[in-house]
Amino acid sequence: MKTSATVLSFLAIVFFLSASASNLPSLLHPLKVPRLPDISSFEDDLSYSLYQHSCSGVEGIIYRKVKEWVKKDPTLAPSLMRLHFHDCAVRRCDASILLDHKGSEKSANVSKSLRGFEVINDIKAAVEKKCPKTVSCADILTAAARDATVLAGGPFWTIPFGRKDGRVSLAKEAAKVPMGRESITNLIEFFQSKGLNVLDLVVLSGAHTIGRSKCESVQYRLYDYKGTKKPDPSIDPQYLNYLRRKCRWASEDVYLDATTPHKFDTQYYQNLKKKMGLLSTDQLLYGDSRTKPIADAFVFRFFPFLQPIQCLHGEACKYSGLHISR
Ligand code: HEM
């Protein structure tokens, strides 16, 4: 039940981004998720009420800042989501991606197109002003990624707080984060090493419903795939033409979801069915018997996607069919 609720609500992102999947609401009965004061602790020492007294209103500060930045530059919303993924993908969600010294995660090749650092710095400065030395950067990044998701039209979820900032940040560890050329077995193993399963892999890959990639990550699929002198056969011919035109230069940007690039929806999975996955790792999800049935569940809208109807900080957040009180 826990697992199906995760998929149903697409909020499995929470699994990874804020480790609170165990509190996901069921669609079968409109469920009232307990209010913050009702929940005192969470596994791993995370707590929904940690900052209630020590820094009340911190989520409001974060949300307003993210909103301000995303209004100026909407491309920052996907970038913040990805920044959080890359933080959590090395060690744990400990803000180690933000450390800026020689040989840190940030200096790794896989991190070179990460964006949104200035947003986190700006939020941190504002939060420090209100409550010095209280809120970790890891918590700020986690909440900022959630808010970016909401601002992009995606779902809202509650976040337990208490992540500790790490001091170790090594480029060689970041080098293990997938870049788009891995096999499904590699991806499953990587996710497993983080305590995530195949379902999480398929659901979280759905974050590629928005945002962009550098053409560098796909050019190898377009002309001489694996030395065949032919393109990757798993690309739709029309989409291939589009990509060849769009990706003349490695430095060009191309949307991860060619159909609805700015909308946080399940079109990403429809694209995979039409052989329009941008990254090889996206398309492979639809070509492997371990992941295809899960992707298909989204294609056939077996799992309804929840659109937030109203979501204001500090107020009730309503989704179709269920209410989440904060
Ligand atoms: C499953 C393994 C994954 C692989 C191989 C992968 C790979 C990539 C690559 C190559 C890019 C383009 C980077 C660039 O050229 O700038 C990208 C972008 C992105 N990724 Fe992933 N990713 C994975 C999982 C995730 C997860 C779990 C999330 C979040 C939950 C995520 C969120 C994003 C977002 C939002 C973008 C767009 C960033 C932007 O527009 O700035 N990815 N990913």
The beta-strand count equals: 6
What share of the residues does DSSP label as strand, in percent? 5-15%
Count of discrete alpha- or pi-helical segments spanning 4 or more residues: 14
What is the residue-mean pLDDT, rounded to a whole number?
A: 84
Largest sheet: 4 strands, mixed
Ligand list:
protoporphyrin IX containing FE
Rg over alpha carbons: 19 Å
User: Which structural class do the helices and strands define?
Assistant: mainly alpha
- Specify the helix fraction band: 25-40%
Strand order of the largest sheet: 1-6-5-4
Q: Overview of this structure, please?
A:
By secondary structure, the protein is mainly alpha-helical. The chain is 39% helix and 6% strand. The chain has helices at residues 2-9, 13-17, 51-54, 58-72, 76-88, 117-130, 137-151, 171-174, 184-193, 198-205, 237-246, 267-273, 280-284, 292-299, and strands at residues 32-33, 212-214, 253-255, 308-311, 317-319, 322-324. A 4-stranded mixed sheet has the order 1-6-5-4, with no helix packed on it. The chain has a two-stranded antiparallel sheet with strand order 2-3. A hairpin with a 5-residue loop joins strand 4 and strand 5 (317-319). Helix 4 packs antiparallel against helix 6, helix 4 (58-72) crosses helix 7 (137-151) and helix 12 packs across helix 14. It is globular, with a radius of gyration of 19 Å. Bound molecules: protoporphyrin IX containing FE (HEM).
Keywords:
4-stranded mixed beta sheet; binds protoporphyrin IX containing FE; two-stranded antiparallel sheet; 326 residues; globular; mainly alpha; disordered N terminus
